[in-house]
Amino acid sequence: MEEKIFLYYTNDLHSHFDNWPKIIHYLNKQKAVRERENQSYWLFDIGDHMDRSAPISEALLGKGNVELLNQADYHFATIGNNEGITLDYQQLVHLYENAQFEVLCANLKSKNEKKPDWLQAVKTVQTKMGTKISIIGLTAPYTNFYNLLGWDIQSPYDTLEEWIPMLKQKSDIIVLMSHLGLNEDEEIARRFPEIDVIMGGHTHHLLKNGEMHRNTLLTAAGKHGYYVGEVYLNWDHTTKTVIQKEAYAYPIHDIEEDTEARNAIQRLDQQAANLLEKEIVRLSKSLRVDWYKETELMTHFVQTLQTWTKADLAFLNAGTLMDGLEEGPVTYGDVHRICPHPMNPCVVTLKGNEIVEVIRGALTKPFMDFELKGLGFRGKVLGRMVFTGIQVDTEVLDSGDEHVIDVTINGKPLDKEKNYRVATADTFTFGKLLPEVARSEDKHYYLPELLRDLLVVCLKDHYRNS
């Protein structure tokens, strides 16, 4: 006797709510079919449903996202880095307190007190015909960030070594909700062939028809809700094996919207607007922003970063500010609008000669024009780098690049062998944008503060009585 089992999932929505009503319409249709056919199914979210670049998620600290998942009758969710490290400890503790779905994240533990009631490692469910499915969730181990916020984050591999033998004994099918990224999913499939399905996310990869890696089916539905995922499993009750595994990611652009979901988003949007309308300062003049020039507001912003972190110098890219501010009242909603990025302040230790290399790289045209996607950045282009605490003399070349002539600090030449504490955005500690910053062995991240929290400080310090 054979049994058809269906798993539906979303991943990396990042609060792109425009696509959510279409996703819900699709899922509701599939649920109706499964109910009519008396087939077992479950709905999953694989993390980063929330993104604080969206006003709803910023104002409600992710609880609006949980409300939408509740309304859609999701069964399971795991935690993405946007849920895990852009909220402070108490905010994350309370995020899922009203969740009507189960939150599974086996490699996350509290180090301050007993774990939240909602946090589970694994869950075993049964189909209508008695097939046992064990589900485990894992999230990307941003160790430095989680530790600063009061959480212990464990290696996904150590966690699986602990759990997989037990799950294999108690279940017929093992499913992993992985907010780890494609490379990690492939390695897990290699090391743990007992896992039947990995529903993935984090690296925004799209596997339209899934991929088999040894015994494991890998699947993922891209990003921002442009696709919704489905996994089909055929379980043979005679041989006690999965005899068929299929995965699909369906585009939703031509699907009609679910009215109830659209109405819920409009209600949450208005609720968020009301919360973000609190006034911070009242400007007596407009403050302009230019991504390719150093402007007054950007200069004061970087000065605030240097002062707040007590660093020797600081730099931020002008593209961090998406827009300027008009004369009159400035609200928290305005600050969120012009600085939506979930990026944290960071201080790294660099030698003088490394600082010079950073300056040279940052003042090239390709760097300024680079349209960064991810690493916390939610802007358009990186733009010109703005420095405080040092003086940088340049000349513009015919190519549009700036040639660095001299770098001084307090009127004296930068000591190439001296260590300096340099404040910037955590974005530059990842990847290859500024290799010298990424390679620094001495990094200090400031959490839970986001850069826009310092922009609020900047406005109060420099423009409260303007």
Write up this protein.
Pfam families: 5_nucleotid_C, Metallophos. One of its GO terms (cellular component) is outer membrane-bounded periplasmic space. With 466 residues, this protein is of the alpha/beta class. It folds into 2 domains: 2-272, 4-Layer Sandwich (Purple Acid Phosphatase, chain A, domain 2); 279-463, 5'-Nucleotidase, C-terminal domain (5'-nucleotidase,  domain 2), CATH 3.90.780.10. It has helices at residues 20-37, 55-60, 63-71, 81-84, 89-95, 143-149, 156-170, 182-191, 259-276, 296-309, 332-338, 352-362, 365-369, 435-439, 451-463; strands at 2-10, 40-45, 76-77, 102-104, 108-110, 119-120, 122-126, 132-139, 151-153, 173-179, 197-200, 206-213, 216-221, 227-236, 241-251, 279-283, 313-317, 328-331, 345-351, 385-388, 391-396, 402-409, 412-413, 419-425, 443-445. The strands form 6 sheets. It has a 7-stranded mixed β-sheet with strand order 6-4-3-2-1-14-15, covered by helices on one side. Strands 7-8-10-11-13-12 form a 6-stranded mixed β-sheet. Helix 10 (296-309) packs across helix 15 (451-463). It is globular. 47% of the residues are buried. The mean pLDDT is 95.
Mean pLDDT over all positions: 95
Number of domains: 2
Helicity, as a percent range? 25-40%
- Shape, principal axes of CA atoms: globular
Give a quick account of the main beta sheet: strands, pairing sense, barrel closure. 7 strands, mixed
Architecture (CATH level 2) name of the largest domain: 4-Layer Sandwich
Query: Structural class, judged by helices and strands?
Result: alpha/beta
How are the strands of the largest sheet arranged?
A: 6-4-3-2-1-14-15
